[in-house]
Amino acid sequence: MRIRNPTRLWSPDRLPSVLLLELIVSWVRAGAPPHPTHVVVCAVGGRVLLPCSGKEGGTHVEWRSRTPLETVYERWGERVWAAPEFEGRLAMAAGALEAGDCSLELRDAQLLDGGEYDSYGLQGDGRLVRRVPLHSVRLSVHDHKLQRAVSAGEDLTLELITPHAQRVVFQERNGSSWGLLWQRGGPESPRLRRVPGREELVLTRPTPEDQGFYKVLDGHGLAVSTLLLSLRESLLAPEAKQDYKEHNSPVGSTAVGPRPPGFILLSLLLWPCALASGLIRS
Fold this sequence. Notes:
This protein is an alpha+beta fold. It has 2 domains: 30-142, Immunoglobulin-like, CATH 2.60.40.10; 144-231, Sandwich (Immunoglobulin-like). Helices cover 17% and strands 37% of the residues. The chain is built from 3 helices and 17 strands. It has helices at residues 15-31, 238-247, 261-281; strands spanning 38-43, 48-50, 60-66, 69-76, 79-82, 90-91, 104-106, 115-124, 129-142, 144-150, 156-159, 165-172, 179-183, 192-194, 200-203, 212-218, 223-231. The chain has a 6-stranded mixed beta sheet, with no helix packed on it.
């Protein structure tokens, strides 16, 4: 829609409202986080550092996520607070904040941790606190893609990657559906057993029917890892190897190979006899 008289927006009677609007916009822009300048990438279960530096932070720093918009970590002096879903997974190096380093370490990264994070220095007393934007980071977390080939009689070790892994499902290589193989806290399978004290499962002596895809899922049903299992061909016995070679020769089982030394010596001994026999007949 076209405005017929745009000068009315700046009429004297509206000047206080315009000044107030400009003041609000300036205040919002001053406290708004900058566009993320750092992108950090890690795999599920890994450890990553969200970088941040700035003396403006002082000794009171806050880290917030954008989606959802909430505080995930706050530190003032020696006191620390972390959101429940990040409990035990966020930390700052001792003495770093006093030196102007407000970088945040994230351990055991999860897929849902991915997103944009902003750090702020908090200034003021308890009645009025001002947020000073420090740094913005985009975190990308990806799952694991694995391939394993085992020989006949060899066990398969399946890493769960993280304590947040809850289930393992299986799909045959040419199948179309997934079946539950293991669930944390559920009954142990006689063939798929948990390694005590470790985030690992062992599949005992996989068979050809065990070839396919093994997917580790977290509590939200997201894939921590996907592993493709295949079996190596077992070694043939020596006599089977010979039979295989004869039946797979380019010219069939009558193919001629290198003559043994005994055959050559016998030929040398019989050749004069054959020659003499020919002379006598002639």
